[in-house]
Input
Amino acid sequence: MDDIKIYLEKYIASIRPPIEIRSKFDLAYRIDKQSIYIDEIRPRDFESLSDYNAVPNIKMTYVKSRSI
Output
């Protein structure tokens, strides 16, 4: 599991938007059981940048029975 986290952290770091716009748009990952999600992080309201919403964009799932 640690190898996957290291890989994901490097990958996300390589595709994140520039620091200047991360308060308006960013990327993050999360792991839930055997699935990995890559989410867009955006403010719910552009007037108030303190409340954020994570929108899932990519889902990858490991299927143990098929080793894929």
Remarks:
- The longest helix spans residues 2-15.
- Residues 40 and 55 are 5 Å apart (CA to CA).
- The chain is about 20% helix and 45% strand.
